[in-house]
Amino acid sequence: MRSIETGPQTVNEDTLKNVNRFYKAEQFRNGVRLLEDNGIEVTADLIIGLPGDTFFKFVKSVKTLMDMKPTTLVFSILHVLPGTILTKRAKICS
Known about the structure:
The chain is α/β, with parallel strands linked by helices. It contains 4 helices and 3 strands, in the order E-H-H-E-H-E-H. It is 45% helix and 22% strand. Helix 3 links the parallel strand 2 and strand 3. The longest helix has 14 residues, at 55-68. It starts with a strand and ends with a helix.
């Protein structure tokens, strides 16, 4: 394996609860470091537009991941996929 893509999507705890995900900062940081120390490139991903994230919360996520120094940091736009908690919530609200 030469590379891996991973990401907390956000580091904001309230936002993570909204999308039924979790993030443990120290474990994630250690994982990035362990992979890169073994020659594996790490691409870390954040998602723009998660429910509950604001501009400033997103900037905090960017800064947190940049401090970890992954090989690459990418941003994805939120896509609501079938079968996810966000699809179920959207149907309830419509």
